[in-house]
Design a protein that fits this description.
Length: 405
C-alpha cells in the first residue's frame, strides 16, 4: 500500500496511544489495591518506573530491534532506527501506512512499557528494587523485543502465518509465562501461610485500576487497526463484549463455588476476558467475542486448580489471568476468525500455526526469564530478606508508607 497521510487516522492513533499510556498507571492502581498495605507503593513504583526505563530502551535501539529491517527472522537491525533515526512525520510503507511513523513508534512504545509491568503482580512482596531494575532492563531487551519482532516486525513467526491483533501472544503470553518463571525461581512468600490468599488492602483502588484498564483497552485493541475504520469498530465492540461476558461468567462461577459473589472476583474476571479477546479482537465477529469472553473466564477461573496443585505462589495470579487468557484467545482465533473482518479465516492450519506461536513464545519467555533471574541473582541477591518482607517493602526499600491514618 502506498503510504498516504490521513488526518482522521492520525487523530485516532494519537487518542489510542494516550489510552494505552494510561493503562500502566491503571495497572499500578489495580495491583496496588490487591497487595498488602505494606507493599502498595513498591508494586506501584514497579509499574511507574517502567514508563521511564522502557521508554529509554525503546528510543535507544529497542524500537529498531523490534521493527527495524529483519535479520534472520529473529531480530531487527538495531542501528536502523536508533535514537529515532528515520522516524519522522511521514507514514511508513510497512507499518500503519496512513499515520505518521513517529506515532506508530509512540503507540508501540506504550505496549513495550506495560508488558514487563504486568509480571510484577506475580512476585509481589519478594523482589528488591535493585534486582527489579536489572530484571526490567534485561527482560525487555532479551525477551520482549525479539518476541515483538517475531510476530509484529515480520519475523519468523509472522512469516509462518502467526497473527496477533493486539498482543495476546506478544504481551499476555510472554508476560504470563515469565510470571510463572519468577514465582518458581523466587519461591513462596514467608509472611503468608501456604494456601493463604492475598487479601486486598483497598478494593475501591482495585476498581479504579480495573476501570482505567478497561478504558485503556479500547485503545489497546481498536488501535491495532491503525485507522479509524470498520476494523477498528469491530475491535472496539469485541473488546467490551468479551470483557462484559467474562465478568458475568466469573460472577456466576464465584457465586457457585465460593457461595458469595466477590467484587475482587468480578474485577479480575473482566480483566481475564479483556486479555483473552486481545489477540483476536480484529479477526472475529461480535457473536464470537461472546464465546471468547466466556471461554476466557472459564479457563482462567479453573486455572486456579493448576496453581493450587503445583503450589506456586503467583501473588496476583498473573499467569492465570494473562498467560492463560492470552493462550486461550490466540488459539480461539484459529477456530473463530472470519476472513470478512481482516483477511484471516478459521481453519485447522491456522489453529496449528497459532498453537506453534503460543508454544514458542511461552517456552522462550519461561526459559529465558529463568536464566535472566539466575544470572542477576548470581551477581547480587534479588529477593528481599525475611525481615524486610515481614516489615513491608514500602518501608524497607523506599522509606515510605502508602497510608498515614
Amino acid at each position: 500500500m502506498t503510504p498516504v497521510l490521513n488526518t482522521g487516522d492520525t487523530a485516532f492513533i494519537i487518542l489510542c496511544t494516550a489510552l494505552v499510556c494510561v493503562m500502566t498507571p491503571g495497572l499500578a492502581f489495580f495491583y496496588g489495591g490487591l497487595v498488602k498495605a505494606k507493599n502498595v507503593l513498591t508494586i506501584m513504583m514497579q509499574s511507574f518506573i517502567s514508563m521511564g526505563i522502557v521508554a529509554l530502551i525503546w528510543i535507544f535501539g529497542g524500537f529498531s530491534l523490534a521493527f527495524g529491517p529483519d535479520i534472520g527472522g529473529f531480530i531487527g537491525d538495531i542501528t536502523y532506527h536508533f535514537a529515532l533515526d528515520k522516524v519522522g512525520g511521514a507514514p511508513s510503507p510497512l507499518y500503519a501506512s496512513t499515520v505518521p511513523f513517529i506515532m506508530f513508534f509512540a503507540y508501540q512504545m506504550m505496549f513495550a512499557i506495560i508488558t514487563p509491568a504486568l509480571i510484577t503482580g506475580a512476585f509481589a512482596g519478594r523482589f528488591n528494587f535493585r534486582g527489579y531494575i536489572k530484571f526490567l532492563i534485561l527482560w525487555t531487551i532479551i525477551i520482549y523485543l525479539p518476541v515483538c519482532h517475531w510476530i509484529w516486525g515480520n519475523g519468523w513467526l509472522a512469516q509462518l502465518g502467526v497473527v496477533d491483533f493486539a498482543g495476546g501472544i506478544v504481551i499476555h503470553v510472554s508476560a504470563g509465562f515469565a510470571a510463572l518463571a519468577t514465582v518458581l525461581f523466587l519461591g513462596r512468600r514467608t509472611d503468608m501461610a501456604p494456601g493463604e490468599a492475598t487479601t486486598p488492602n483497598n478494593l475501591p483502588l482495585v476498581a479504579i485500576g480495573a476501570g482505567l484498564l478497561w478504558f485503556g483497552w479500547f485503545g489497546f485493541n481498536a488501535g491495532g487497526a491503525y485507522a479509524a475504520n470498520e476494523l477498528a469498530s469491530y475491535a472496539f465492540v469485541n473488546t467490551t463484549v468479551a470483557g462484559s461476558v467474562a465478568m458475568v461468567m466469573w460472577l456466576i462461577l464465584d457465586w457457585h463455588f465460593s457461595r458469595k459473589p466477590t467484587f475482587a472476583g468480578v474485577l479480575v474476571g473482566a480483566v481475564a476476558g479483556l486479555a483473552t479477546i486481545t489477540p483476536c479482537a480484529g479477526y472475529v465477529e461480535p457473536w464470537a467475542a461472546i464465546i471468547i469472553g466466556a471461554a476466557g473466564s472459564l479457563v482462567c477461573y479453573f486455572a486456579k486448580m493448576v496453581q493450587e496443585r503445583l503450589k506456586f505462589d503467583d501473588a496476583l495470579e498473573v499467569w492465570r489471568a494473562h498467560g492463560m487468557g492470552g493462550v486461550t484467545g490466540a488459539l480461539l482465533l484459529g477456530v473463530l476468525a472470519n476472513q470478512g473482518i481482516d483477511r484471516v479465516s478459521a481453519s485447522t492450519h491456522q489453529f496449528l500455526i497459532q498453537l506453534l506461536g503460543v508454544v514458542a513464545v511461552g517456552l522462550y519467555s519461561f526459559v529465558v526469564t529463568y536464566i535472566i533471574l539466575f544470572v542477576i541473582n548470581a551477581i547480587g541477591p534479588i529477593r528481599v530478606t525475611p525481615a524486610e518482607e515481614r516489615a513491608g517493602l514500602d518501608e524497607s526499600l523506599h522509606g515510605e508508607d502508602a497510608y498515614r491514618l
